[in-house]
User: What shape does this take?
Amino acid sequence: MSGARTSTVPEVADTVDAVARLASLPGLTTASEVAADVAGASATGKLLPVVPELEAVLPLRGLRRGSTVSVTGARSVLLALLARATAAGSWAAVVGIPDVGLAAAAELGVELCRTALVPRPGPDVVRVAAALLDGVDIVVVPGGTSMAAASARRLTARVRHRGGVLVAEGRWPGADVELVCTPGSWDGVDEFGRGYLSARTMRIQGRGKSSARVLETTVLLPGPSGGVEAGEHARRLEVAS
Amino acid sequence: MRQRVTRRWRVSRAGQAVPEREAARSVDTRPSDADAGQSGGGKAAASPDGAAGAQGAFPGDAGAGSSGSGERSAADAQQAARLVVVWCPDWPVTAACVAAGVPLHHPAAVFAANRVVACSAVARRNGVRRGMRRREAQASCPELAVLAVDPARDARLFEPVAAAVEELVVGVDVVRPGVVAAPVDGALTYFGDEHRLVESLVGHVSAMAGVEVQIGIADGLFAALAAARRSCVVEPGGSRRFLAPLPVTELDQPGSVLAEFDGCADLVADLVDLLRRLGLRTLGQFAELPERTVSSRFGRLGMLAHRLASGLSERPLDRRKPPAELAVEETFDVPVGTVEEAAYVAERMAGKLHAKLAGRNLACTRLGIYARTLSGEELSRVWRCGGTDGGTNGVPVAARGIADRVRWQFDSWLQGEQRPQSGVVTLRLEPEEVVEASLLQLHLWRGGAGDNPADDDADERAGRALVQVQRLLGPEAVVTAVLGGGRGPAERVRLVPWGEARGDEETLRRGAGAQQEVPTWPGRLPAPSPATVHPEPVRAAVVDRRGLPVRMTERGVLNAPPARVAVDGGPLREVTAWAGPWPLDERWWDPRAAGPAARIQVVVSEGPAAAGRALLLRCREQQSPRWQVEGEYT
Assistant: This one.
């Protein structure tokens, strides 16, 4: 017995040492630290909730106030990000995206009465977005090439200061979380013109600025009801059981 | 036993008041012994206020409410003040007709959400009733002028009437556009007799403002309104007897005190309906119920209705004069001369005032708006705030209600006939009368997210930010969406500028649990909807296997399955899957949209590795280009 104890103690100590060494590296966080961060942030209201299916790709399992999220590849993922927060009483504003599908947004769960739209903000998108950030929790702006790097930096700083969340459609320099979406194939239609578009698989990869880990999930987006539904493998398991 | 003493006035267009029927006793009623002390006290309290009256104090209220003498019993405190009410029948219609240039003898009705909210007497004679659908109303009166509801217009056009009344009576109080109330006590010292007052008012208002009015005098606003509707004068202390034979539907008259006070007309309608079904047909029968029974069965709204039916003051506690520091005053370096500037200022100051009041758990029921222009003109007006009316888009109603009133007032000052000679440099919002905020709270009926005070705060902050953006870009630039009926993804969405009524407040008030029921539309595509909807449809070309354009036939089918699609002049891409067509049988009256039409969904291949693009295409045979991309499932 005593022999066994003497052999385990150094092992534990080694592991603790190793974790401590790893944790001291810049850009690395331990799982327990992440969990503590999440609990702390959601308890203090610093985290805006998202639908459970999308929690898996966000490092903090929600939208942290003061952060910037870029979504590339699929607008429906962007709309789905707004759903839970607006339903829970937060406000969102969509600036400079005149062709957003609002019926789809409602189907994804976005509360339209708390979603303001500024379809044509004119030449100074940054000024409008900055004014909105004074009172609106989530501001959606077009990213990518339509936004100059200097403007993007100004907005990022503004978001950090005002405690809102900036969601960019397209790439955003220095985004805290990047979601890269890869739409998959559609269900419900065939080459003979039967049925209707009903569901699509969507692979989403999330990468936080502060962690090297890539979070990944596959969901049905939109699902048969128009909302987000658990990924296809999960659905198959359900059917099998 | 005292008899109800009334006198009817029929007001001719020329403005002469003709006594129609006189009751047995003279109108100069001597107060009975029971009333003597109270009315004497009222007069005594009013006289020192007589001097202050010129500066905008309200002798009647001071007498009824917070007179310094602490001897007033609880029953006396509940006794309502004696008021004269000047009522313009069907004011929304009158205002709309004047604004739209419709002659007043032409049948007209004002509609909101396809229902009649007010109609003129001519229309009523032709069978139009409140609550009718437009089609129904037009069926019974084909020449009916259909006008839209617009509270701001009503308020603006009402200003001359209020001004005309104010020339004769001090302490005028605009209950709502169409109704002015004023305390009688002060005016009586000048006119001596209530009937002389009525006569003068009728003549003066018709001559100055050119509108037909009815006038009533009674204790308490509710009774006075009912009296005005019947053009009669109720003797002091006789309100309860006067109200007793009236039907309970009196509680649900358009914009009655109760509906205004609670801001939820349908709840009042439900209550009235319930009372009728319980066999309580008259206000008197309802008033006879013990207060305790009413409160346990009908809740707070029922209590309020019961108080009104009993001829008591509509507010259970006595009004107190607010301490001076509640007023909000601002001085502008640049005079405010346009309505837009005024709206912005109003929003900000209303927010401040609301915050001050909320901090003391008070709500403002009468709001004084005082302005001084650069050239020294003094403008003032007192508005009654229902406390909970006018809330849109989830912004706390009290603050918005205050802001609306300030904006309307500016609207009428700046666009009225007696336009001030220069811009406004000082604006002062003064709560003339406040009550405990809990008395006006709506949250009792409001479920869901609205219950949380933190949410209200968030709503208000968001509202301010959106108004700020409207100031930068114009009021039309900030919109929210309402889903409605329609087949296409774009047709289903109605964009409402921020600050205007969305038309689904009813659903919001009922709480998040009651999801809005969008009626089903035949021919609508099932969910999911496209996440990208082009505001201007993009042209497309759809060809079959042989490269010939795909067309719609008269029977609503495609002449060949689509094989390749080009979007906006781009290269032709293979169609890997498609669905449809969903024929569109609509807009047959529009020559540009006539002819066979349908929607189809296609999945277009983007290369061997990438997943396909899913598009929603619309085909109209008579249109060029024939195929258009309406939306994309991104």
